[in-house]
Structure formats: C-alpha cells, structure tokens
Amino acid sequence: MPDRAVSGAPGSPHVRLRPYTGEDARATLGVFVAAVTGTAAADYTPEQVAAWVGGATRVPPAGDRDSGGTGVGGASAGVSAGVSPGHVDEGGPGARMVPDPSLARDLGEWDRARRSALTVVAVMEDSTQEGGVVGFGGLIGTGHIDMLFVAPGHGRRGIATALLHRLTELASSRGAVGLTADVSLTARAFFEANGFRVLAEQHPVRNGVQLVNHRMARTVSGAE
User: Fold this and answer.
1) Which of 142, 199, 212, 214 has the smallest set of CB atoms within 10 Å of its CB?
2) Listing from the earlier edge strand, what are the strands of the sheet with 178-184?
3) pLDDT tens sequence across 177-224
C-alpha cells in the first residue's frame, strides 16, 4: 500500500496517506480521543463520551497554558476495535481532551486493534500533532469501515474524504461490492454526503453506558 498525497486548498500544508505502523499507536489514539471528546459532545452526553473513550481530561488551548507546562501528546489509553461508533471531526481548534492516565487502558491493546484492521493514517508535514498524524481510518474484512477520525482543527481540508476514498479502493481490491460502517450521530451527515444510507439504528453498550449509532452502507461502485 504506497503513500499517497492528499489534494487540499491552495497553500494548505501537504498531507499524505500511508499505512499504519506500531509507531503510530500513541498518535492515532490521541486523534481518536481528541475527536470524540472535542466534537461528539454536541450529540452525546458527558457520560456517553466518557464511556466511549474510557475517561478523559480537558486541556486548554496552547495559548492558555503556563509556559512551563508539560506537553500532553504522550498520554496513553485504548479501546477495543469495532465497538465505538464511527466519527469524523470537522471542528475547529480550541480546548481539547486527552486521556486521563488514571483511567487509561493499555496502549498495546489499541495497537493490536489497529493492526488487526487494515489501517491508513493521514500525516501532515507541518502539523503539531504527535508524529504529524492528523487522521486515520481502518478496514475490517473485505468492506467494513472500523474507524474514521480526523483531529480537531484539521477538518474541512479533504482529509476525511481522502481516507474514505482510500479505504474504498482497498475494499474494492479485496473484492468487496459494498461498504458498511457503524456511524455516530455526529458523522452521519458526512457519510450520507458520501453515498451511504442508514440501514438501522443501533444501541451499543460501552462500559455500561448505552450509546446510539447507525449501521450505514453503500456500494463500492458508488465511490467517486
């Protein structure tokens, strides 16, 4: 799976897609937690968000921190693959959430889950994100999208769309005739704009808390 450049607006930083490696575990986890806690709160209760990510702590924007403060990009946590509602962040910069170490799960578990899927990461050369990773997505089996996330502040640059298109190509190469995804309330409009339709409303339970998402699908031949 070769690297691929992402076309963005003129003057925007260069973004490329590449295969996931074990060195991306911490960075992709950070993107996941920041996207869920930074955007999905508009559609899910604080209890649901906390259950989804496994606990998080709010961190103010960089300009509001003391100059002697320590970085937060290295915090560690994890979730199991395939049980969280899919989510795409298209929000702006600002206060963000990071995993609370006291509630964190094993980073190795997260890494194994990403490796068990065919995971693609989006990397921006000039990003302040850890490792330059600003988004990622995964494919399970021939055509199920496991996760699709973009870091807050990096939305509306075509990153999520590029990731989805790349996953569609990979699914097609595996012989898939259709795609499925378990999509959060927050991400439903994005998936609908990309040809997915709702098959059913679902109520997965995470850490004893009931969430809401939608099983959505589309044909691979509908990819642009």
Assistant:
1) 199
2) 4-6, 15-19, 118-124, 133-140, 144-150, 178-184, 213-219, 197-202
3) 999 999 999 999 999 999 999 999 999 998 889 999 999 999 997 444
Ranges 13-17, 66-70, 84-88, 133-137: which has the least confidence: 66-70
Query: Per-residue DSSP letters for the chain?
Result: ---EEE--STTPPPEEEEE--GGGHHHHHHHHHHHHHHHGGGTS-HHHHHHHHT-EEEE--GGGS-TTPPP-TT------TT-SPB------SS-EEEE-GGG---HHHHHHHHHHSEEEEEEETT--SGGGEEEEEEEETTTEEEEEEE-TT--SSSHHHHHHHHHHHHHHHTT-SEEEEEEETTTHHHHHHTT-EEEEEE--EETTEE--EEEEEEEGGG--
- Dump pLDDT digits (tens) for 103-154: 445 789 999 999 999 999 999 876 555 568 999 999 999 999 999 999 988 8
CA-CA distances (angstroms) from residue 213 to 48, 103, 146, 200, 209?
12, 24, 13, 9, 13
Residues 6+ apart with CB under 8 A from 35: 87, 88, 89, 149, 150, 151, 152
